[in-house]
Design a protein that fits this description.
Elements: H1 3-9, H2 15-35, H3 45-49, E1 56-61, E2 70-76, E3 79-85, H4 98-101, H5 103-107, E4 117-120, E5 123-126, H6 129-147, E6 154-156, H7 162-175, E7 180-182
Parallel strand pairs: 6-7
Antiparallel strand pairs: 1-2, 2-3, 4-5
């Protein structure tokens, strides 16, 4: 090792950096001592068995992709409060990926879109499902009439199962185009 490298490895620590490191070490030591005392208590048998009294377990399927892993949602007063992996599920066999493990947060997200919306005059307005489907259908038909069916591109999803993919492809063909792809290729 050269002398220059040795000097770089043994850089001097300034007073301010030393004080910061000492403060962090002290805080770590203090919090470690709290953890080793009787500040916390063990959960009771009832708390372990049922942390959300009055809740019910609902077997469901993760919707992050088309695999369909098993999820057991715990619901209390109509609110999804926690989830577990369905250990007896024939597809996931007691496990799921990071997207499935985070499914509860996606469902409870404050920014999750829950209703069809349309932007009019620069502001978002809630519309009915019928109005949304009619609006999309009329825009697609107008586009097909004015620019032709190949002016569109249909993009599939990883959430599609085999049957959904079949119908999606048939829809694009009936619309008159072969312009179809999958989100994973983008």
């Amino acid at each position: 090792m050269s002398a220059n490298t040795y000097e770089t490895l043994n850089a001097k620590v300034g007073r301010r950096s030393f004080m910061k490191m000492a403060a962090v070490a002290t805080a770590f030591g203090v919090t470690s001592s709290f953890a080793s005392t009787n500040v916390t208590r063990k959960a009771t048998e009832e708390e372990i068995k049922n942390p959300f009294p009055g809740s019910k377990l609902v077997k469901s399927i993760c919707t992050a992709c088309s695999v369909g892993c098993g999820v057991i949602a715990e619901v209390q007063n109509g609110v999804w409060v926690r989830q577990e992996v369905a250990t007896d599920h024939p597809v996931s066999l007691g496990g799921h990926c990071c997207k499935g493990a985070d499914m509860i947060d996606m469902v409870r997200s404050e920014v999750r879109l829950k209703h069809p919306m349309v932007k009019r005059a620069g502001k978002w307005h809630r519309i009915s499902w019928d109005e949304a489907i009619e609006g999309i259908g009329s825009k697609l038909e107008s586009l097909r009439q004015t620019a032709g069916p190949d002016s569109t591109m249909f993009l599939g999803s990883a959430k599609f199962g085999t049957e959904q993919s079949y119908y999606f492809r048939k829809f694009a063909a009936m619309f008159g185009t072969n312009n179809i792809d999958h989100q994973a290729r983008i």
